[in-house]
Amino acid sequence: WIVALQAVGGAAGNMICVHNVVAASAVVGLLGREGSVIRLTLIPFIYYALLPGAVGYFIVWRAESGLINAGSVLILAIAATAIWIIARYGRRPAGTP
Q: Where does it reside (predicted)?
């Protein structure tokens, strides 16, 4: 489990890695806008880093601390926040407020 979590963490870090952002910005013609690209990927990065970390914490510590531990609480908080954001800001059919 630990090695898998390390691989996920490394992949998450690539989202905001300066070298990757500079290369991607150069390819798509956004030279000089690397900071805005990193800012745009910050929220997905936080989600992508926190959720696997919480799941990993839950799995590793479940045997000692049971089903209710910091990992399970964080998983529930992330799920509740995602549901709230989708309900609040999700797409609505045209003509509805």
A: Cell membrane
pLDDT digits over 12-21, tens only? 888 889 999 9
Q: Are 64 and 39 in contact (CB under 8 A)?
A: no
Helix-strand-coil split of the chain, %, nearest 5: 80, 0, 20
- Give the model's pLDDT for residue 97: 61
Contact 69, 82 (CB under 8 A): no
- Condensed to tens digits (0 to 9), the pLDDT of residues 46-66 reads 999 999 999 999 999 888 888
Q: Which amino acid is at 93?
A: P
Residue 49, both tokens: 């880093």
Contact 10, 2 (CB under 8 A): no
pTM of the model: 0.74
Query: How many Cβ atoms sit within 10 Å of the Cβ of residue 52?
Result: 17
